[in-house]
Amino acid sequence: MNTFSKADKNTLLFVIIITMLAPFILNPFPEGSAMAQFNAGYPDLMQRFAIFGILAVGFNILFGLTGYLSFGHAAFLGVGSYSAVWMFKLLSMNIIPALILSVIIAGIFALVIGFISLRRSGIYFSILTLAFAQMSFSLAYSVLTPITNGETGLQITLNDPRILDGGTGAGNLPVTGLFGLEMRNTFTLDLGAWAFQFNVGYYICAIFLILAFYLSMRIFRSPFGLMLRAIKTNQTRLNYTGLNSRPYTLAAFVISGMYAGLAGGLMAAMDPLAGAERMQWTASGEIVLMTILGGAGTLLGPVLGAGFIKYFENIFSKINDNVLHTWFSILPDGLENAIVWVLHFFVGKGWHLTLGMLFMLVVIFLPGGLMEGADRIRARFGRNKGKGEDTPNATNPAE
Amino acid sequence: MDQFLLQVLNGLDKGSAYALIALGLTLIFGTLGVVNFAHGALFMVGAFCAVSMQKIFEISKITIDATKTDFLGNPLKVKTPYVIEWFGESAGNAMINWSVPLAILLAIPVMLLVGYIMERGLIKHFYKRPHADQILVTFGLAIVIQEIVKASYGANPIPTPAPSQFVGSFDFGVLLGMDPNAVIYPYWRLIYFAFSAVIISAVFAFLRFTTFGMVVRAGMADRETVGLLGINIDRRFTLMFGAAAAVAGLAGVMYTPINSPNYHMGMDFLVLSFVVVVVGGMGSLPGAVLAGFMLGILESFASMNAVKEFFEMLYLPSIDQIIIYLVAIIVLLTRPRGLMGKAGVMEE
Amino acid sequence: MGILEVQNVNKSFGGLKALQNVNLNIEEGTIHAIIGPNGAGKSTLLNCFVGKLVPDTGTVMFNGQSLLGIKPHEINQTGVSRVFQTPEIFTDLSVMENVLIPCFAKRDGAFKMNALNRVRNEVDIQEKAEQMLIDVNMIDKRDMIASSMSRGDKRRLEMAMCLAQDPKLLLLDEPTAGMARADTNNTIDLLSEIQDRRHITMAVIEHDMHVVFSLAQKISVLAQGTVIVEDLPENIKGHPKVQEAYLGGAH
Questions:
Q1: Considering the entire predicted model, what is its pTM?
Q2: Average pLDDT score over residue span B277-295
Q3: CB–CB of C116 and A218 under 8 A?
Q4: Which of C53, C92, C93, C106 should we substitute to test contact with A (largest number of A Cβ atoms within 10 Å)?
Q5: Weakest-pLDDT range from B3-7, B111-115, C110-114
Q6: Shortest Cα–Cα distance, C245 to chain A (Å)
Q7: Is the distance from CB of B19 to CB of B289 less than 8 angstroms?
Q8: CB A28 within 8 A of CB A191
Q9: ipTM for the predicted complex
Q10: Which among B62, B103, B105 has a CA at the least distance from the CA of B85?
Q11: Count of beta carbons in the 10 Å neighbourhood of residue A336
């Protein structure tokens, strides 16, 4: 561990504490209180925090360091999910072989797609990855139906062979696990009015998130990471310095594809099904948004961005007109209705509109994301500790 | 032979749409240096201009006809569209019938305005920002436009029929001495193709023969120099953006009878239009048009039963869904600049 | 035998003949200046050395190896470094990081997947980069972000980056363009010091005759795409062909 500076160690420690104590931190409001709807400490959502955290951390290795904007990362997520479900169908419900296959297959996909897309840079690259993602979506949705089960999505069934577990052909559908430890197991700790849930699946995801984060930290601080940042700044100089940028970008692309594959595999490990919609361009857009919202090129930003988006997606989607009416019931009726009418477009099914707006606002006003925002606030209050190594590259496109 | 001809014809309408969107994308990219991920949304907004026109014409006045009763025994409420009330039976009905072509009149000012607001309000501030930011902000805008349309018009496709005179098909086969019904082609698709041919020619003529067009072409070739000549290039760029928006919008209006518009049609077309631009060659207008039609026709060929069956033997059913991407990959691997791409465009 | 031998190089852009039968011979260990009026083809020639352009015909041999048709990074790995007219540096990175990159490139080659090492722990590379910064007198600026420096500093940084690779041939495209007189003199001193200490062969494109005659041991005069004279500095002054090229070419 002595390879990292003090600031880095603190960041890592912060991530470990946050993820390990998440069931407490995300559950601040007592059960049954009016605020309980803002709790996020239940297994399903916490798993998503960790999984999308991994996804964003991986995307950041490509976009944050090299500046290559991929619009097709959801494809690798989907590939990871499909691979994992196939492993559950053919081999065993143990998540380890499933995750290994997810990462490998996603890596191979990334190698092929990257090899072609990276022949170009800038806008061209973004368009190519977008086209590849749409193609993968079409492949999954219709062309490769025998492998992906098309529209319905790929699921496990009782008749699957499952060589290692021995297909039973009867009884309930088996559940995913780690050497017998079931992912769905949850231990609930009741403390007064609070009920804290500790879920096996979440902790598995959390451990992978910490490992993923640690690895990305190593990459950021390595000579390889330095070259990737150099590519973002000035590729011409890099070439005239005797360095071949292509294998560097390809390696970054494959690594971040493997991260996405891991995330997809984990998704399937938590809930063993895979559908084509996971690969759509909207999903890719969401990954980009998480990363830039948190702060592309920073270590911690993508994790925060993923948590932020997934939290608000969850909260916003649950709010409907009735909830709004109860919130604003103290206001006069006309005003109440007017406010509810306006907000109606942004909550519930209108979450995507909020997402789109957020996207624009972040790009326009805060290109460095939440991390830049935090820096600005810190600077304003005069406690300018200096950026140090924590944000080596707090992307400042203004120059 | 007749099958062949049929597929060429079938490919033309989609090809026209691709070509028109790709043309606008190329114009904006060539002049402003911005890749507009919201261009598909503009196409969709155009389509919804047709929907709006139809809805406007169908706004009805409700009168009570005391002489008749409905099935519950209440006096019958009769809906009379205002257009019929104002312009008389035959003119009013004709307007409702022709609402799609008439929507062009609505679409032109709407699209110019949308384009103007977009360029002045948003895109302008992104000329000097990195490409990634331009992509991201227009992508966000595309989502916003799409969601607004979804919230206002619902998620389901809305049927917008062509004027009744154009329902039915033209029998091409008879014209060429083949059996009747061998090669038939819906009238409206024929009109769509003709319409897009006119628009494309108009754009090219405009760029070729007007001073404005000359400046734009010069700007596409070398933006900085034109800026140095003291020509107010900013204002021309705004106009250019408005024009590109209008082209996309008109393509959308006229496309509605072919496929009922829905809120995500824009993005579906955008991705393919990008592929078209890349295949045609970034920054090349003729390339965009050529590749648009080529890929449209190719897609149509891939949906032929014989072709599909062949690929099904290779375990690739519905090859038509991905044929465009496959071709794009092959083109890029063999001709990285695209079919008609110029040297030095996006090759950093 | 020169370290860089250019024979019969032709290059045209469309109808414009930028280079016509250019012959050039740069001796090892010398500073060779290439001068000529604007548009004479100096930069085109330099671009042919580093793989940015490929000549239509002719040969470019470096150390007995042809440079034609190989990629810029491969040319650089054979020992040719270039300083650009407008400094090409990694603007978002710190000064130290800017110098670290060529040090890694020198040691590890065009690509090495060392994603798990730590930049800080690469002691030999760190020391070399520091030494480089001391040599160009920039060690006090090691943690500055490169984009925030003055133009002169950027150029010195670029020079340090090139020198960090221990090149056999250093190409300099107007190294003093846009510099104040004091900075120009510093650069002259720096270059001659480098030459004394490391015996690096240099090819300099320059407009400023003060720089040219302070540094060059040999001068080639390029006019309208051809080398009209190649001689020692003392013979270039007052050479009739050179005067004609400058007076006839300059409007």
A1: 0.88
A2: 87
A3: yes
A4: C92
A5: B3-7
A6: 32
A7: yes
A8: no
A9: 0.89
A10: B62
A11: 16
Q: CB–CB of A252/A61 below 8 Å?
A: yes
| B38 and B148 Cβ atoms separated by less than 8 Å | no
What was the pLDDT predicted at B230?
63
Q: Report pLDDT digits (tens) over B49-58.
A: 999 988 888 8
Q: Check if the beta carbon of residue A197 is closer than 8 Å to that of residue A188.
A: yes
Provide the 8-state DSSP code for B346.
S
Contacting residues for C17 by C-beta, under 8 A, at least 6 apart:
C10, C11, C225
Give the separation between CA A165 and CA A150, rounded to whole angstroms: 26
Q: How far is CA A18 from CA A291, A386, B92, B191, C217, in A?
A: 19, 24, 67, 62, 66
Subunits in contact with chain C (3 or more CB pairs closer than 8 Å): A
Within 8 A of A121 by CB-CB distance, chain B residues are 348
Residue A279 backbone phi and psi in degrees, to 5: -105, 5
Q: Number of residue pairs across A and C with CB atoms under 8 Å?
A: 116
HSE, CB side, 13 Å, CA atoms: give it for residue B159.
Answer: 4
Pick the CATH number of A6-281 from 1.25.40, 1.10.10, 3.30.450, 1.10.3470: 1.10.3470
Inter-CA distances, C51 with A227, A235, A367, B345, Å: 21, 15, 36, 19
**pLDDT score, position A53:** 95
Is B316 in Cβ contact with A135 (below 8 Å)? Answer: no
C157-183 confidence digits (pLDDT tens): 998 999 998 899 999 988 887 778 888
- For residues A1 and A38, the model is more confident at A38
CATH topology of domain C1-79+167-251: Rossmann fold (3.40.50)
Please give the Cα distance from B130 to A66 (Å, whole number).
13
Rounded Cα distance, B58 and C192, in Å: 86
Between CA C207 and CA A292 the distance in angstroms is: 46
What is the average pLDDT across B231-238?
A: 74
**Distance between CA A255 and CA A114 in Å, rounded?**
11
**Residues B98, B83: Cα–Cα separation, whole Å:** 12
Closest residue, chain A, to B150 (C-alpha): A350
- Give the model's pLDDT for residue A168: 58
- Cα distances from C147 to residues A231, A397, B160, C144, C154, in angstroms, run 15, 12, 57, 9, 8
Contacts of C113 in chain A (CB under 8 A): 224, 251
State how far the Cα of A238 lies from the Cα of C98, in Å rounded to an integer: 10
Per-residue pLDDT tens for C53-90? 888 888 999 988 888 888 889 999 999 999 988 889 99
Sketch the domain layout of chain C as residue ranges. 1-79+167-251, 91-165
Among chain B residues, the shortest Cα distance to A348 is held by B151
| DSSP E strand boundaries for chain B | 60-69, 75-81, 169-171, 184-186
* pLDDT at residue A391, rounded to an integer: 41
Instruction: Give me the count of residues in chain B.
Output: 348
Neighbouring residues of A14: CB distance < 8 A, sequence distance ≥ 6:
A300
Of A87-101, A313-327, C123-137, the poorest mean pLDDT is in: A313-327
The alpha carbon dihedral of A222, A227, A232, A233 has a sign of positive
pLDDT in the model for residue A167: 57
- Among A56-70, A116-130, A174-188, which range has the highest average pLDDT? A56-70
The CA distance from A316 to A333, in Å, is 23
CB contact under 8 A, A236 and C82: no
Tens of pLDDT, residues C226-235: 888 888 888 8
Question: Are A12 and A269 in contact, with CB atoms under 8 Å apart?
Answer: no
- A116 contact B CB<8A: yes
Ordered by start, the domain boundaries in chain B are: 2-64+75-334
The pLDDT value given to residue A388: 41
Residue C38 has pLDDT above 70, yes or no: yes
